[in-house]
Structures are given as structure tokens and as C-alpha cells.
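C-alpha cells incoming
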């Protein structure tokens, strides 16, 4: 069963912007903390942002802080990741995951985080 559908990825030049969407028709997203991860070829998944359930507080990894913004539209049951000032090192597959709490964000995997659900991802490529 597909729990999430991510969209919005694509090819963008350095300095450009993209907005990723994470939508579910299976469950209510604001009942969970929704995290965005990315995984580049040959690298471990990196948690880049998370929005808490309920109050919708957003957190960010150091690598994206100040450039990415996470938000949630309850009416559309969708979580967004607005990505600005994109860099080539942002190139990766981005996917969302749901769990009661947020993971520790960053390039070191959080060993205590095992999401209940995750999506297939959308490719983001930043290149000239």
C-alpha cells in the first residue's frame, strides 16, 4: 500500500528553487511528525527537516537551515518542503517519513528512529 506520494522534484540550476510535496490519502498527516530525508548515491540517508504533529514546529539540519522551509496544509493533507538557494550537493532522492516524533536530523543516521511509514521519493538534481 502506498502511504505517501512525493512530488515536485526535477532539474534546477544552482541558486534555484523547488517545492516538494508529500501527500497521503491513507492517513492524516498532522497526526504524525513528518520528516523529509534525502539520500544521494553511495551515501546514508540524511534527515533534513521535520514538522511536529499538532503544533507544526519545524526543525532543520545545519546543511539546509536558512534555505529550506517545511510547512503543512491540513486541508490538503500535504506537507511541503520549500527549497531555495539550491546547491549541487542538494542533489538526492528526497522522501518523507511519518512517526510520532521527529528524528535527530543530520547526516549521521538516528539509530532510534524507525518510521512507521515512508514514501518512494522524488529526484532532485541541481546542476548547470
Amino acid at each position: 500500500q502506498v502511504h505517501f506520494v512525493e512530488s515536485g522534484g526535477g532539474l534546477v540550476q544552482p541558486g534555484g528553487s523547488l517545492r516538494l510535496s508529500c501527500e497521503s490519502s491513507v492517513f492524516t498527516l498532522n497526526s504524525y511528525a513528518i520528516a523529509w530525508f534525502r539520500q544521494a548515491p553511495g551515501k546514508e540517508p540524511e534527515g533534513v527537516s521535520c514538522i511536529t504533529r499538532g503544533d507544526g514546529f519545524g526543525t532543520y539540519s545545519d546543511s539546509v537551515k536558512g534555505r529550506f522551509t517545511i510547512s503543512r496544509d491540513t486541508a490538503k493533507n500535504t506537507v511541503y518542503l520549500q527549497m531555495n538557494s539550491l546547491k549541487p550537493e542538494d542533489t538526492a532522492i528526497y522522501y518523507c517519513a511519518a512517526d510520532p516524533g521527529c528524528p535527530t536530523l543530520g547526516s549521521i543516521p538516528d539509530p532510534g528512529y524507525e518510521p512507521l511509514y515512508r514514501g518512494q521519493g522524488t529526484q532532485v538534481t541541481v546542476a548547470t
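note: DSSP finds no helices and eleven strands in the chain.
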